[in-house]
Specification:
Layout: E1 6-10, H1 17-27, E2 31-34, H2 51-60, E3 64-67, H3 75-88, H4 100-110, H5 116-123, E4 129-133, H6 144-155, E5 160-162
Parallel strand pairs: 1-4, 1-5, 2-3, 2-4
Helix pairs in contact: 3-4
């Protein structure tokens, strides 16, 4: 597929509000794809990433917001990762990689019928730099990396992972 699209990923943990939005600006993001099922975060530290505030800020920056709930893992799939984290004695925010059971279940549930062509259709022809967003700091610890990996394979692009 010929395409000039760039794919970036970003999580919220580790950023403060200004550095998060600055990172999006520096990357040239014009389309922001929220791949979370629940679009809220507890506490004031990351309140800027709660859906309404996030959408308002992105709109003021001229960045389109798209919620791709179909790319968010179900609670059953999330529970597989929670069990893996528990077995390893690590917290969600300390996770460095996804467990194999989660990866397998996520690919079967969310990526089985996924196609880059449909993804491109959903983000539209004006999308040039697309950010895949979830919460985890490390892309390898988040399902957004699996989506980025699939897009990389099909579109022959190298995803960029924005970290704090």
């Amino acid at each position: 597929m010929e395409n000039q699209i760039r794919i970036v990923t970003i999580g919220v943990y580790g950023f403060d509000e200004e550095s998060f939005f600055s990172a999006l600006t520096e990357a040239g993001v014009d389309t922001f794809c929220d791949v979370r099922r629940r679009r809220g975060l507890r506490g004031s530290t990351y309140a800027f990433a709660n859906s309404r505030r996030l959408q308002e800020r992105l709109a003021s920056m001229g960045i389109r917001y798209i919620h791709l709930k179909n790319l968010a893992p179900s609670q059953a799939v999330r529970d597989l990762q929670k069990q893996d984290d528990h077995r390893k004695g690590i917290g969600k925010r300390d996770r460095a990689a996804l467990g194999p059971a989660f990866v397998q279940a996520y690919k079967a549930e969310c990526l089985k019928d996924f196609s880059a062509r449909r993804f491109l259709d959903s983000v539209g022809p004006d999308a040039h730099v697309v950010a895949l967003f979830c919460v985890e700091r490390e892309p390898e610890a988040c399902h957004r990396s699996l989506v980025a990996e699939r897009l990389a394979e099909e579109l022959k692009v190298v995803p960029e992972h924005i970290k704090p």
